[in-house]
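Our collaborator T.R. sent over the components below with a one-line note: 'Predict the complex.' Nothing else. No constraints on interfaces, no templates requested, no preferences about which chain binds where. So this is a plain run: every listed entity goes in together, and whatever single assembly comes back becomes the starting point for the next discussion.
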Amino acid sequence: MADEHNTVEHVADAAEHAVDMAHGAEAGGAAMPQLDPTTFSNQIFWLLVTLVVIYLLLSKIALPRIAAVLAERSGTITNDLAAAEELKAKAVAAEEAYNKALADARSEAARIVDETKAEIQSQLNAELAKADDEIAAKTAEGEKAIAAIRDNALSSVTDVATETAAALVAALGGQADDKAIAAAVAAQMKG
Amino acid sequence: MGITDVATEAHGEGTGLVFHPLDQFKVTPLFGDGPVHWYTITNATLWMALAVLAIVAMFVIGSRGRAIVPSRGQSIAELFYGFVYKMVEDITGHDGVKYFPYIFSLFCFIFFANFLGLLPLSFSPTSHIAVTAVLGFGVFIIVTMIGFVKNGIGFLGMFWLKDAPLALRPIIAIIEVISYFVRPVSHSIRLAGNITAGHAMIKVFAGFAAIAAVAPVSVVAIAAVYGLEVLVAGIQAYVFTILTCIYLKDALHPAH
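Returned assembly:
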């Protein structure tokens, strides 16, 4: 130690001094506090105390506690996942039931629609047939009336024509022959 | 001690440029100035105790609620638990899970000691080879004992590779034995070395900050190295733990 002390030279230049210092430190390897054996027993003793305390604290208190928490958490997560899986299955089942109900309702509705359509169609057909009948009857009636009116009109035309023809013949100074006039009128009417 | 003297002299000269990057690793009594006995309460004791407090706060108080939907603190505790548990289970298999509390304790101690060591003016217990050697050799001894208890003398079959050519087997066995015994050394030096190097580097850069012209570069460098150290703090805890798992796997299943 004393030797080292002597190796230190008094130099003015700061940088040189620094280099010397570094040399001093390197040369005096024994000066490393790590290699000073007088402190070994102290450090080893306190290290062993420290390690034993740490080991006891961790292995008796902290580690079992953390292990328990982690186990509990993984258990909880597993349970929650299982519950979630179950709920999901329920949801799927509910959706299926809903879809089935929907499909049933659709087919039921379609059936009702078809039935109603058929019913309405048959009613419609019946009404149509009835209306057709009525119309046919009315038509026949009308035609009959028209025929009657036409016959009437025809006979009236014959009468008027005969009378007119007789009047014309008389006006022309002829002698009206009823039979001849009727025949002439009938011939005209036919043509 | 040499360094302290050097530092004092440097101060005395008033040059302003002071390097004592290793002072932060000194183990000193917390109360008074006496010698460091094995039972003395030192700064190492203090920072180990703070690591214990941090672990209590995070894992004991944090998990107090035992909530199915965790609070923030409980989430972090569960995150750590799950991270290390998965590591142990993936590497060592199902029969390694019963050593999980031990591995988790190691991981937590290293993790919190590393991160608390990143606080300014703090002390990093994991920067000391005495500490990491106890951790590393502890793993080595426990794992070796497990190996012999579980497999009996068959545990030595780990060094006798059946799928190697017969002529090479003795040589490979020697190499395997040497590498097996080097494990705890590399295991512990890796951790202490990483933490020490990073902390010392920050101190060196901080020393350069005394020169006004270099100070901005120095500050940026400190920030960068600090960022790197945050990574290293986590990664070294991870590496230590995963190597412990791998060694444990070798002990449980020596036939690979």
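Summary for T.R.: The CA atoms of residues 161 and 185 of chain A lie 7 Å apart.
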